[in-house]
Amino acid sequence: MASMEEIREARLAKLGLLEKNNIDPYPARLERSHSIFDLKQNFENLKEATIVGRVMSLRGQGAITFVDLFDGTGTFQGLLKSDEPISYTGVGVSKAFELFQGTVDQGDFIQITGTLFVSKRGEQTVQVSAWKMVAKSLRALPDEWYGLKNEEERYRRRYIDILLNTEVKNRIVQKAVFWNSFREFLMNKGFVEVETPVLENTPGGAEARPFVTHHNALDLDVYLRISAGELPQKKLLVAGFERVFEIGRIFRNEGMSYEHLQDYTQIEFYEAFSDYQEGMKMVTEMYRYVAEKTFGTTKFTINEQDVDLAKEWQTYDYVALIKEKTGLDVLETDLKELTKKLKELNIDFDPKDLNKERATDLIWKSIRKELTGPGFLINIPVFMEPLAKRSPKDNRVVERMQVILGGSEMGKGFSELNNPIDQNERFEHQEELRASGDEEAQMKDDEYVEAMEYGMPPAFGFGISERLFAVLAGVSVREAQIFPLMRPKG
Asked: pTM to 2 decimals?
């Protein structure tokens, strides 16, 4: 079997043969009468056609050659015969059939022109009377069945993976439907799509470690945002907008796992004069809408649990569940008791990074796996959420809800905190956590507090990342991305 380099050298020789015949192997212009999809749709009404596509296979020897072309819309067969007149489009070549056999490989892009007929096997075919090289490939495509089975190679050469793997290609289209269905749903309810800055002086709207970069023109360090414009969108509520949303890229300098990445797409929306109870109704409706539009169903298997979004959604109480499962009242306990419980439950933790917030979250995550959903997690302690409004029933908890599907959190929203005094105090608490070593605690944003002091209406806000798409599609978030980030080749 020839090596990759030997194959490349052979193709370079064919490139030279084309050039020797005064043929540009990468012409700027081509002629195409139909896409392959259109050709198939109108085949019965046509006599001739010119199509362009990538050579996916070559069959036959000597006096006859079959070629299959793929142009992204479909695949079509071409037939070349040595005893039928064949020319090279635009260039006078005396032996165009022989030139085809001597220069065309699988992977090349070519143009073919000819009459249409149905083969003896019943396949729609172009009998080629003229051809043209559109782009000569120098590397051989991997075998469709045996190539690119290694995950790293699949991600590194994702363009080949997409070309050969219909499932991956279809998932890209499906993901576009996923985001557009969110957009349709919100715009039908009067939301305005906005764009807010990716570079921020203070990263806000989430608890995460940000990426840092330097802005040369202003000579200052800035952060890549960790939310899809949460604080800027809420400033728009101050500015008089009632309903806004953004679909955009966010960046978190954290670990990688089956469900976590460092850069990904997220949607966030904010609705003035609403709260998390009204929001839960809307989110239930939205998830069902998006699922039906994207996947044609509301039934999914998530973490080996059957979840039906069409069912009535349950409500889970954060404080009550932890107390039921562990005996701890997280509203009254301290770090010492939490640490003891972590050890009892054999939950791994780093003592250097542990505080009450992190310890409580670790215990919660050990419980969360048992909740199938669909449902909403409510009554989260104030110390766990710096941006949500306190509950009027118990000011130790906030009006935050999280979507629970198959033991995972799949979206978060809350009645937005609009009391600037309370907000400033919570930011200061987050600053204390950062000073003690918690790099994921939120930074204080004085400009946001200032905006809030001008008057911010009560509102509901919600955000969900592309992890929801991956989970519903039954793949890892890395698999669901088109081009996952890879280390450079060593």
From this structure: 0.90
The C-alpha R_g of the chain, in whole angstroms, comes to 29
Average pLDDT, the chain: 93
Q: How far apart, in whole angstroms, are the C-alpha atoms of residue 302 and residue 409?
A: 11
Q: Residue 480: which residues within 8 A CB-CB, separation 6 or more?
A: 171, 175, 466, 469, 470, 473
User: What pLDDT, on the 0 to 100 scale, is given for residue 422?
Assistant: 93
Grouping H, G, I as helix, E, B as strand and the rest as coil, residue 231 is: helix
Q: Report whether 373 contacts 453 (CB < 8 A).
A: no
SS3 461: strand
Q: Residue 395 corresponds to which tokens in the numbers above?
A: 């000011």
Q: Tell me the one-letter amino acid at 153.
A: E
Tokens of 273: 């004069």
- Specify whether the CB–CB gap between 420 and 397 falls below 8 A: no
Could you tell me the fold of the domain covering 4-141? OB fold (Dihydrolipoamide Acetyltransferase, E2P) (2.40.50)
- Residues 414-435, mean pLDDT to the nearest whole number: 92
Query: What pLDDT, in 10s, does the model give residues 331-360?
Result: 999 999 999 999 999 999 888 889 999 999
The domain ranges of the chain are 4-141, 161-313+373-480
Question: CATH number of the domain at 161-313+373-480, please?
Answer: 3.30.930.10
At position 61, the amino acid (one-letter code) is Q
- Euclidean distance between CA atoms 139 and 108, whole angstroms: 9
Tokens found for residue 81: 């015969």
Burial class for 489, CB neighbours closer than 10 Å (0-12, 13-18, 19+): exposed
